[in-house]
Amino acid sequence: MTSTYLKRAAIFSFVALMGMGPLVLFTNNVGASSSHAGYQTTRKNSGTPNSTYVKIDSKTGVVIAYGDSAITYNAPSASLDTLGQALFLENCASCHGTEANGVPANGTSGSFPDLVGLGPATIDFWIDSGRMPAADVRAVQAIRHQARLNKNQALAIAAWVNSLDPSYPAIPTPHLKDANVSDGAALFALNCAACHTIEGDGDALASDTFAPSLRDIPAFEVVEAIRTGPANMPRFTGNLSDNQVRDIVAYVTTEIQHPENPGGFGLGGLGPVAEGFVGLLIGVGILILIAYWVGERQ
Ligand code: HEC
Ligand code: HEC
Question: What angle do CA 144, 114, 64 make, to 5 degrees?
């Protein structure tokens, strides 16, 4: 009696596991369908102040700060405008034009992105992550480098570009003290892991592009990436609250950047799909052995 039961259970589990195969394969393709859409990648005004705290400049009527306990956003000081314009003319205008509108002095419009109205966090992200000034204009994707301008210079350029058409998001400062890392892990699995993998090592996407590794990225830049959506990455605005973004950032800057194996076999962090397959192979192997063993007993 028991052996027939075991045998049936073994066969049932085997069929069930095999049925899951396509599902596991499918999850690997999520996100790979987005293609490289020309040069302009960031949407204007990505992310509006959605906060109980909003500070407005009484003279200009422009929002200069917003956000509260989870993340605060500050527009770079207008006193940096003059320095920013000089730095822009020196480092950026050859491609993006003297008005930052994407029309270089002797070039064709449309070859380089229009930066007016993109918001300070977008400008800051591209300079601070070393993507700009561009090293290779023909590259399909600008990649992360050692930054060529310092933090203050990046803020100054962001201030000047923003003065042309004030917009959002402003420069974020995440406050990670009360973050919930396990909520962050769940949100990361849902929103980010399809492209960056659950271990944050990154993966190839369509059209020769890739989602980069998330190791060694400063916390504020993780917020900037989430809120502005650089290149092929979607931007997350209303669908993730500041609390949720803070939790994700805490997961990225603690678990991913300082990984500790929670136990069991490490498998060298192959990623969820590969690890799932190893689990599947071992599990199915054991079930087949059990089925054989049960069979021989009769
Ligand atoms: C040699 C030409 C070149 C220079 C110089 C340059 N850029 Fe760019 N920039 C590009 C190209 C090409 C892209 C598109 C890259 C991509 O999509 O991967 C780009 C993209 C950007 C983006 C993203 C726009 C969007 O729509 O997402 C920002 C922001 C930006 N540049 C800012 C700057 C700033 C600020 C400077 C000066 C510090 C600068 N760039 C200097 C060529 C240049
Ligand atoms: C559809 C795929 C996709 C999804 C989903 C996605 N990203 Fe990205 N991510 C990318 C790509 C592509 C880039 C590189 C952009 C570029 O080339 O400028 C990127 C860049 C980044 C960067 C900058 C890394 C660097 O090298 O400077 C961070 C940080 C980041 N993503 C975090 C996240 C987080 C957190 C989530 C979830 C909330 C997420 N991403 C969701 C595709 C994705």
Answer: 85
Question: How much is the average pLDDT of 165-179?
Answer: 94
Ligand number nearest to the C-alpha of 215: 2
| Ligand 2 atom closest to residue 212's alpha carbon, by position in its atom list | 26
Residue nearest to atom 6 of ligand 2 (CA): 192
What separation in Å is there between the alpha carbon of 112 and the centre of ligand 1? 7
Per-domain residue ranges for the chain? 2-30+263-297, 54-256
Q: What is the pTM of this model?
A: 0.80
State the Cα–Cα distance between residues 295 and 229, nearest whole angstrom: 56
Which tens digit of pLDDT belongs to each residue from 47-104?
A: 667 788 899 999 988 899 999 889 999 999 999 999 999 999 999 999 999 999 988 8
The CATH code of the domain at 54-256 is 1.10.760.10
CA–centroid distance, residue 29 to ligand 2 (Å): 16
Bridging pattern class, strands 210-211 and 203-204? antiparallel
Cα atoms found within 13 Å of the Cα of residue 198, Cβ hemisphere only = 16
CA 211 / ligand 2 centre spacing (Å):
6
Q: Which of 42-46, 138-142, 148-152 has the lowest mean pLDDT?
A: 42-46
